[in-house]
TrEMBL record:
Residues the record marks as active site: 55 (charge relay system), 100 (charge relay system), 249 (charge relay system)
Name by which UniProt lists this protein: Peptidase S8/S53 domain-containing protein
Annotated Pfam families: Peptidase_S8
GO terms for biological process, alphabetical: proteolysis
Keyword Protease included in the entry's annotation: yes
InterPro entries reported in the protein's UniProt record: Peptidase_S8/S53_dom (IPR000209), Peptidase_S8/S53_dom_sf (IPR036852), Peptidase_S8_Ser-AS (IPR023828), Peptidase_S8_subtilisin-like (IPR050131), Peptidase_S8_subtilisin-rel (IPR015500)
Protein origin, superkingdom: Eukaryota
Keyword terms of this UniProt record: Hydrolase, Protease, Serine protease
Family in the record: Belongs to the peptidase S8 family.
Peptidase S8/S53 domain boundaries: 49-278
Amino acid sequence: MLLFDGSEVAQPTQQRFMRELERFADKIRHVTESSPSPPDWFPWRKDPIRIAILDTGIDVKQDMLMRIALETKCIQECCGFVIERDSNPDPHDFQDLNGHGTHVTRLVLNAAPSAVIFIAKISDEITIGPQNMHRIARAINWATEKKVNIISMSFGLDCRDSDIDQAIHAAVNANISIFAAASNDGGNKPRVYPSSRSHGVLCIHASDGLGNDGGISPTPQRRKDNFSTLGIGIPSKCKGIPTHISGTSYATPIAAAFAADVLEFARHKCDLSEHETKVLCHFDGVSKILRLMVEQEVETRGGYDYVMPFHLWTTNRSDVQVAEMITEIVNT
């Protein structure tokens, strides 16, 4: 397994994207805070959207945001899977020794302010050997048991793994949407597993801040979704020091957060039944949610489907109209 962490590259276009991201996050935060709680006879609308992040954990020793998120329960629960096959997961082992998972979690916290996050630590390093693939499968199963809505996986494998396949299958059947990084090898290699699966996993590519190809994603595939969002020159911090990060690893949690935001909006603004809510949260429903955030009736940007929330929340489209468009997903 390889975490798709690219070099530190500053890009001026990301500043515009990050301003738009912050504006959208404020909108979702306002929707959550200003909307009345759903009535008791709608229990499926009571809980916020839940996101599981499978990565290298979080740095609670040197990163104040991670500590605050834990204390305020924005990060609901952590669990360590850096264990032998027959050992029990360790709920106390979530310290990030690499930094990758902390970057990913920071992006989700910033882009999905109303979501509840679950951290599954699957590695201390940038790679996992074939003998440790069980960590990923067990982490997916754990996330399924926690009844998350979304799983974000910023890594890829050179070949399929049957245990991981079974775990993904169970998660999809539980109406969980899984996001995975495409890879950082450009046209030299195709999508890697699990983003290469034909169904059940949303493959995410990296763009610059204006939606242009970031130059690291695999070649877009014909007659398939080729979702992309910002993955180049993203501002972050490492041990308190500002830095910039690049990679499909980082586009993946941003796309997952955008999907979570739309689901959170729907929880308050769409009058959905329990069955309709499950349909919307399913892989097919979330695929259509991402499609709503792609420019309509225009050519793709270099073959990629660029995801930006304000393609859905346009200046001349009200929240009521957006809610109607989201509701239409479950009726088609």
